[in-house]
Amino acid sequence: MSQLYGPSHRRLHDQFGTGRLANRLEDLSHAEFDDADREFITNAPMFFLSTVDTLGRPTVSYKGGAPGFVRITGSSELLFPSYDGNGMFLSVGNIAATANIGMLFIDFENPRRLRLQGVARIAEIDAQSADYPGAQLLISVQIERIFVNCGRYIHRTRERLSAHVPDENGLQPFPIWKRLDLMEGALSDADQQKADAAGGIVPITCYRGEDEPPAL
User: Fold this and answer.
1) Is 80 exposed, middle or buried (0-12, 13-18, 19+ CB in 10 A)?
2) 101 near 120, Cβ under 8 Å?
3) How far apart are CA 115 and CA 63, in angstroms?
4) Residue 51: which of 8, 22, 82, 28 has the closest Cα?
């Protein structure tokens, strides 16, 4: 039983021939932080937070701070501060009401994305808050799922767009991540042909991101 996909997702998988790939990516998702997750999150100066209100309406907000402002407090737990804002308390109010959240971490300099899903709660202001000067509240998150997202459409700057954006003819480079050994056997026939034409399998240890050639 999939924890990520329902009938609507499966119809799209069937339409575009990505069922095997989608299953592989779900298999690679995890509930506990690995070393790469920890390094990425604890060095992040920002993330995007998705919450849902009592009427089912989603909202997304930007959260920023000094690197380290998001702290991993357990194998599947993290903590971040809520600083003074516009006084609407949309995100925190939603958390208090419905709890389910999504978090998206992005590295724009070395294109990479990490997505988290979990259940959040407003933590008591206690000794931990001394580590967060200026924090009005602390948010504790119990992580349910962690998965890496393709970073190929991340723009470096407004002037330097990702090379993977389709050109005027709809052409774009084949993504390196689909050539990784972790994806072997999961691609559609069409994508496998493109992967072979692009140079074949790339070991995960050689992957340096979508903007850099593999370190073979």
Assistant:
1) buried
2) yes
3) 14
4) 82
Q: What is the pLDDT of residue 159?
A: 74
Q: Which two tokens stand for residue 115?
A: 């997505």
Residues (pLDDT < 70) of the chain are: 126-130
Maximum distance among all alpha carbons in the chain? 58
Q: How many alpha carbons fall within 13 Å on the CB side of residue 108?
A: 10
The C-alpha R_g of the chain, in whole angstroms, comes to 19
Q: What is the DSSP string of 19-83?
A: HHHHHHHHHH-BSS--HHHHHHHHT-SEEEEEEE-TTS-EEEEEEE-STT-SEEEETTEEEEEEE
Q: Is 141 helix (H, G, I), strand (E, B) or coil?
A: strand
State which amino acid sits at residue 128.
Answer: Q
Q: How far apart are CA 80 and CA 115, in angstroms?
A: 16
Output the pLDDT for position 126. 66
Residue type present at position 168: E
pLDDT in tens, 33-75: 999 999 999 999 999 999 999 999 999 999 999 899 999 999 9
Report d(CA 183, CA 177) in Å as an integer: 8
Q: Could you tell me the CA-to-CA distances from 134 to 66, 83, 160 in Å, in that order?
A: 12, 6, 35
